[in-house]
Amino acid sequence: MATHNDTGSKGEAAARDYLLTQGYRVRHVNWRCGHLELDIVAERDGVLVVVEVKTRSTDYYGPAHEAVNDRKRQRIVTAADAYVRQHDWQGETRFDIITLVPEGSTFRLEHIEDAFLA
């Protein structure tokens, strides 16, 4: 596996573990529907939380959350719509971003709740 893929996988695992410690129930990781993918789908307090995870080896080129541009947000919303329909979700849905940058043997993690609207 390429180093950037390994960093991304470790970042997604760290994000999942963080969500669990914060009281979220992780429903799916890397959920796919055709060419669409959601990094993490979680639930807390009756809210479905779609989490985009961005792991960067450094923040030299700017904050990782800036990589979630309009096109990426639209793909996430489209995938979330497919998820909601497939799983017959009737409640509220929220879109979060978790960014991670390695710091020694751990990550510096930022959780942006309600990062964008559908």
Please characterize this protein's 3D structure.
The chain is built from two helices and five strands, in the order αβββαββ. It has 118 residues and is α+β, with helices and mostly antiparallel strands. Strands 1-2-3-4-5 form a five-stranded mixed β-sheet. It is globular, with a radius of gyration of 14 Å. The protein has a single domain, classed as Trna Endonuclease, Chain: A, domain 1 (3-Layer(aba) Sandwich). The longest helix has 19 residues, at 3-21.
Instruction: State the separation between the terminal residues, measured CA to CA.
Output: 34 Å
Number of β-strand runs: 5
What is the highest CATH level, the class? Alpha Beta
Largest sheet: 5 strands, mixed
How do the strands of the widest beta sheet line up side by side?
1-2-3-4-5
Assign the CATH architecture. 3-Layer(aba) Sandwich
Question: For the CA atoms, what is the radius of gyration?
Answer: 14 Å
Work out the count of structural domains: 1
Count, helices: 2
The H-and-E topology, N to C, reads as HEEEHEE
Taking all residues together, what is the mean pLDDT?
Answer: 92
- The portion of residues forming beta strands comes to 35-45%
Described by the principal axes of the CA atoms, the overall outline is globular
Approximate helicity band: 25-40%
| Spans of at least 5 consecutive residues with low confidence | none
Determine the CATH topology. Answer: Trna Endonuclease, Chain: A, domain 1
- Structural class, by secondary structure, is alpha+beta
